[in-house]
Amino acid sequence: MAEGAGTRPRQGPPVRPLPVSGVLRLGRRSDTWHRAATSAVVASAIPNLTLLALGRLDLALYTSAGSLVALYAHDRPYAARARTLARVALVMLVSLAVALCTAALTEDVAVRVAVAALLAAGHKLAGDAARFGPPGNVIFTFVASSCAFVPQRLADVPVHVLLGLAGAVISWLVCMAPALVREDGPRSLPAALRVWTGDREPGTRAVLAELRWGSPLLPVATRVGVSAAAAGWLTMLLGVGRPYWAVVTAAAIFQANLVLTWRRALQRVLGNLLGLALFTALLPMIGIGPLALVLVALATQFAAEATMSRNYWLGSVFVTPMALTMVEFAGYRPAGELVGDRWLDTCVGAAVGLLGCVLITNRRASARVDGALDRLGAAVAETHALTGVAPGTAAALRDRVTAALADLRDAVAVAEGEWWQRALPAERVERAERAGRRALATLAATTRADREAA
Hints:
The chain has 454 residues and is mainly alpha-helical. 69% of the residues lie in helices and 0% in strands. The chain contains 17 helices and no strands. It has helices spanning 33-53, 60-67, 78-105, 109-130, 138-147, 157-176, 189-196, 204-210, 217-237, 244-252, 258-286, 290-307, 312-327, 335-359, 365-384, 393-416, 426-453. The radius of gyration is 23 Å and the shape is globular.
């Protein structure tokens, strides 16, 4: 059978074993971890300590929603960072407003879960389309899901959203502050790789194109929404009164394909279990008073950013107590009830999320490979016709070919990790990548000639 016959089904069983080896292996720490860790701690400390001094630490949950904006975009040049942070803040504040209005308008737990699940699906779709980068959609979903279950009066919602806006403004200023002493932006290996692989901030038109009907992002967003709702409703039936953690867990484990989702689910369960144990050990310290609560939240937030890039499970060990203390700013709950509910939420959320990933297949993954091949082929064909062009055209086309190659690699990686997919056109992919690399070499030579002529 010719590899190019991409419409034929796979031979043999479509179900492949899911990997276990290497899931918990620790990797190298990110070059930029200290930027996100320091920025997030500073952006959180300013409003939290201010509210503590005013005796209103109960409002810290809302400022914390904005403070979490500081986790994003540290590997981007300052102009792109400013735009990305503004977009992140917008998504965060809209989500906060919807969640708080839901909490104020209904006490029906099932309805609150439904709204949180819809928001989770929207977060996944928006985050993937806009390419916010790590930590991705899970931060938005955590904020929205937790706030949907916080006691709320409708008259207080505008003030609480404004507190979130204040936290976001502080985050923006903290993240942009390095521009005062270093104008050319970050000079790290992750920043260089973003440019080389074409992983650049998409414009508004590109984001809207990713949100169109038929987009390969829609099946994944559907998985998130359906699974998050099912997980929340199931834990509600099992007696959890505020099942926001189940919604967050189901949303957090979803990755580009089933294989990656399986790995993330294992990491999430282990990390949350150890994190709950750490939270239990920290309870005597938290019980000392509000200042101790704030300090524990800041310390675990820093530790989470310091360890997350090494492996998700290790970062989750510290994310869990950080998230629990953040939610507890609004009021204390019995420790046994809190820990028990969160552990049940974690297990149910991970199990339902995996089930949703298996049942809701991403059949557009293979179609995305075909589209990426077509775009790369068009860019390479344009390269072959490159004669007598204006200065700068070769450089622009080089960026287009680079982005097309990166998109093809990403599309193939996603499709290979999905179940129930038709066979990928392996030979066509290999030929297209070789042609793309040759085109880049030609364009590099043309760009050098343009510079020498100038």
